[in-house]
Amino acid sequence: MTLDAWLTLAVVLAVLATLVRGRVSPAVTVFAGAVAVMILGVVPAEDAFSGFSNAAPITVAALYVLAAGIEKTGALTPVMQSTLGEDGAYRRPLVRTLAPTMAASAFLNNTPIVAMLVPQVTAWANRRRLAVSKILMPVSFAAVLGGLITVIGTSTNLVVSGQMSTLGLEPIGFFEIGKVGLPIALVGFVALVALAPVLLPDRRSARAEMEQEGRRFSFEMIVEPGGPVDGRTVEQARLRDLSGLFLASVDRGDTIIAPVRPETVLRGGNRLHFVGPIDRVVNLQEMRGLRSAEMEHVLDLDEPSVRYYEAVVGSRSPLVGRTLKDVGFRATYQAAVLAIHRSGQLVESRLGTERIRLGDTLILVSDPDFRDRWRDRADFLLVAGLDGHPPSRASRSWIPVGLLAAVVVLAATGLVPILHGSLVAAIVLVASKVLSPLEARRAIDVEVIVVIASAFGLAAAMEASGLADVVAQGLVGLFGDYAPYGVLLGLVLATVVLTELVTNNAAALLMLPVAVSTAASAGLDPRGAAIAVAVAASASFLSPIGYQTNMMVYGPGGYRFTDYARLGWILTLVTVVATVVLVPTLWPAPA
Fold this sequence. Notes:
With about 600 residues, this protein is α+β, with helices and mostly antiparallel strands.
C-alpha cells in the first residue's frame, strides 16, 4: 500500500467509527472526511468536493420537493386510508397496505409515505385492539423493498448511478435495478404477509401504553376565587412536578392556554385540566384553593385548542443527548411532554431531567398547528396527531401527481434525464404555489444531501490512492476459489454490514470503488457489481438505525432494538441470495 492509501484508510476508519458512535452528525462526519483527504493531499479539491456538482444529490433534492408536494396535497391519502379495511386480523390488512406502499415507494421518497401511514395504522390497530407492532414494521420494510424497483426508488440508487459515471460506467437505467430488485420485493412481500403476524411480538404503542398506565385520565380542578391559589403562578402554587400528574391546559373561559408555563398566572374561576392516573387525583383534592369539577374518564381532551401528538426523535434532532430542561422545551416548541416512550416502555423517571435518546417517542400536548410547524424540521423524524384528524386533501393534488407521472415516463423512455425532469417538476410546484419556497426548502433533507456529496470525495480518494484496489485484491484472494459468486457474496455481505452501521448512502459510495475494482479480476461485470452494491446498501432490515423509515416506526410500534432482526434476517437472506444468484446471470462478465 502507498502512503496515500494508508492515509485514506485511516480517514475512512475514523469516519466509520464516528458514524457508528452516533455522537456527531453524519453530514459533519463525512464532510470532515472529505476535507481530511483533501488537506492530506490524497485528492485535489475538485475531486474531494466533486459530489456537490454531481447530478445525484441535486436529483435527490428535487425529488424530495416533489414528494413534499404529493404529501401536502394529500394525493395518496384516499388510497392509503382505504387500504386496511375492517375484515381480517392481520394478513388481509397487510396485503392491502403493503402492496400500495411498495408501489408508491418505487417512485417516491418513502419517508412521507410511512409518515402518512403511521397514525392511520396506529388508530386502526387501537380501534380493533390489535397489536400495532405486527403492522408498522412490515410497512417500513415494504417501503424499503419498493425502493429496489426503480432508480429513483431510493437516494442510494441515484448516488450509485451518479458515481458510476465517474468510474467510466453508464448510469443505471430507470428500471434496470428492478431486474434484481423486483424479484426481491415480490418474495419479500410474501414473506412479510406470511411471517410478520407470527414472528413479530405483541408490543404496545406509546399511546396504548399511556392509556393502560392511566396517564390519559383527564379531569378538571377549578381555582377558587380569592383562595390561596388565586393570583399565583403555576410554579408558586406548586402545580409543577406533581407525582404522576400533568397540568395540560388552563381554561380561562375566553381562551385556553396550552401548554402551561411555570410563569402562567392562575385566576379565580380558571378550569385546570390535569392528565394522570386516577390514584393521583386524591393528591389534588387535598390542595387548598382548588375544588374538583365534574370528572369524566375520557381518552382525549375535548377542547378544540388542545391536541395530542406523537413525535419521534431522529438522528439530526438537537434534542439528542440533552434534557427537556436543557433545551427549554416548552418555550422552544410551544408544547409540553406528557411521556417518553423508549424501547417498548414508558420512561418512569422525571421527564425534565431525562436525557433524550435517538428513537425516543415523545407524547406531546400542544395547539392544533404544532404538526404544521414541526413536521418538516430536523427536530422530529415523525410528527403524528393522536386525535384522529387526518390531513385534508387539497383540490390541486393532480399537479404533483401529474408531474411525477411525467418525470417517470420521460425518464423511463430516455427522452428526458431524471435530473432535468425532477428539477423542472420542483420548479413548477413552487411556481404553481402548491408549495411555498419555504416549504420546498424545508422538504429537502440537507443532511442527506451533504452526506451524499461528501461521500463522493471519500470514494474518489479510495480510487485515486489505490486503497480500493488493495481491498479488492484481498476479497479476490479470500474468495477467489469461488469466483464469481464467492467474491460477489463477500461484497454484498460487507455492504449489508456497513449499511446497518452507518448511513446507506455512505456505505454504497465507500463500497462502490471496491466493487468495480474487484469485478475486473473476479470474472464479474463491473456494472453488475455496482448494482449489487446499490441493492445491498438499500436493503436495511436488521436494525432501526440502518434506515430512516425503520426509525420512524420504532417508538410508535413499541419495538425494542432486537425486534427488527426477528423478521429482518429473513429479508436480508432473501436479498443476499437473490443478488448473488441473479447478478452474474443478468450482467455476465465480458468475454
